[in-house]
Amino acid sequence: MVQVAEAEFGSKSYGEMLTLRKRILRDPLGLEWTEEEESWESRERHFEGRVDNEMVACVVIRPLGNGGVKLRQMAVEPARQGTGIGRGLLEGVEKILITDEVDRIELNARDTAVGFYERLGFRKVGEEFVEVTIPHWKMVKTLR
Ligand SMILES: CC(C)(COP(=O)(O)OP(=O)(O)OC[C@H]1O[C@@H](n2cnc3c(N)ncnc32)[C@H](O)[C@@H]1OP(=O)(O)O)[C@@H](O)C(=O)NCCC(=O)NCCS
Fold first, then answer.
1. pTM of structure
2. Which pLDDT tens digits describe the chain residue by residue (144 residues)?
3. Phi, psi (deg, nearest 5) at residue 117
4. Residue 124 CB–ligand 1 contact under 6 Å
């Protein structure tokens, strides 16, 4: 069972999440964060997923206004992928967002992760596009 919690920007947990995100999402592509991405971090919400107190997953939520958010940087420890941790993290985060009056989540999904988000109730909108050098799809989900 994954324990979901929000961490402050700049906290020790936030630092651990940055390390996890970099190792899983950026290093395999040979990319660094852009200045534009870094400039958002202090204004975003950072959620961690832990199992037996070990950080195994994380996700970033960017407020867009009018009840909308953008989900970014979803990552699960590779050795634990496919064991329900991504689902547990996302369902836990959605419960928190609903209590904060969020009613719409959008994201840019890597082509390889589209099936995961579809299982969680997201649907594709528009056409495929390239981001961080790989194919992506915009996806949306309405909460409530
Ligand atoms: C994509 C990712 C976040 C999914 O998390 P996960 O913990 O592996 O997924 P779960 O085990 O919770 O799977 C939840 C459901 O989605 C399905 N699923 C998981 N990954 C899938 C995939 N890549 N394609 C299709 N279905 C998938 C599972 O079968 C499961 O279905 P069920 O619960 O209805 O039986 C994780 O694999 C990951 O970090 N991948 C590498 C980084 C990445 O691609 N991040 C997303 C960037 S947009």
1. 0.97
2. 899 999 999 999 999 999 999 999 999 999 999 999 999 999 999 999 999 999 999 999 999 999 999 999 999 999 999 999 999 999 999 999 999 999 999 999 999 999 999 999 999 999 999 999 999 999 999 997
3. -65, -35
4. no
State whether the beta carbon of 23 lies less than 6 angstroms from ligand 1.
no
Convert 93-109 into a string of H (helix), E (strand) and C (coil). HHHHHHHCCCCEEEEEE
Q: How far apart are CA 17 and CA 14, in angstroms?
A: 5
Q: Is 58 in the pocket of ligand 1 (CB under 6 A)?
A: no
Tell me if 135 CB under 6 Å of ligand 1.
no
Q: Is the CB of 75 under 6 A from ligand 1?
A: yes
Largest CA distance in the chain: 40
How close is the Cα of 83 to the center of ligand 1, in Å?
9
* Atom 16 of ligand 1, nearest CA residue: 116
What span, in angstroms and rounded, lies between the C-alpha atoms of 133 and 136?
9
CATH number of 3-106: 3.40.630.30
